[in-house]
Amino acid sequence: MMEFNRLLHSKLDSIFEQNNLRVIEEYGGFVKLKSPFVVMSFSHDRMENSNSFFVGRDDAEYLVDADIAELLFHLEEGKIFLRPETSEGDFLDNIVMLLESHEGKKLLSGEMSKLSDVDKYVNSKAKIYTSNLLNKQYLNAANQSWEEKDYQGFIDNLSHTDKDKLPSSYRLKLKIAFQKIGLN
User: Fold this and answer.
1) Band of the pLDDT at 173, cuts 50, 70, 90?
2) What is the model's pTM?
3) What distances in angstroms separate CA 81 from CA 18, 59, 91, 92, 120, one per listed residue?
4) DSSP assignment, residue 164?
5) How many CB atoms are closer than 10 A to CB 172?
6) Closest alpha carbon to 153 in 131, 173, 132
C-alpha cells in the first residue's frame, strides 16, 4: 500500500507544493492534504483494487464521483477518468490532468464557488434521499394502518406524503378510508 503513496507523491507533489497543499495525514494507501482553501484525500484499497478521491473543506469532504467531477471540472467523462477500478497509475495520471486543468487550478486557488456548487449538490441529493425515505416510511405505516383497519391512521400517515405522487391504489384506499370514518 505504501507503493500507492510513493506513486502519488511522485506524480502529484509538484502540484501540491505549488498550491500550498500539505500532508496532514498519511498511512498505507491513504494521503490527506490541506491548503488554506481546500482539503483533498486520495486512497487505494488493495483488497477491492479501487481508488478514491475526496475534495472539500475542513468541515466536509465529498467523494469525487462522476457527478461531482462534472460540477468541479466540467468533465462529462468523469466516469471514465475516475472509475474506482482504474489502475493506481492511471487513476493518479487522471488526477494530475484534472488538477492541472483550468477548472482544477480554480479549485486549488480557492475559488469557493466550486466547493459551494458541490455543497449545494450534495445537500440537494441528501434532501431528496431523506424525503424519499420519509415517504416510504409513511407509506409503510399507512399500509400497516390499512391492514389493521385503522382508517384514521391510514389518512394521517398519507397526509405526510405528496398525494399527487401516490399510486392510484393509495388514492382509492384514501377515498375508501374517508368513507369509512364518515368524512366524504
Assistant:
1) very high
2) 0.73
3) 23, 26, 7, 10, 23
4) G
5) 11
6) 173
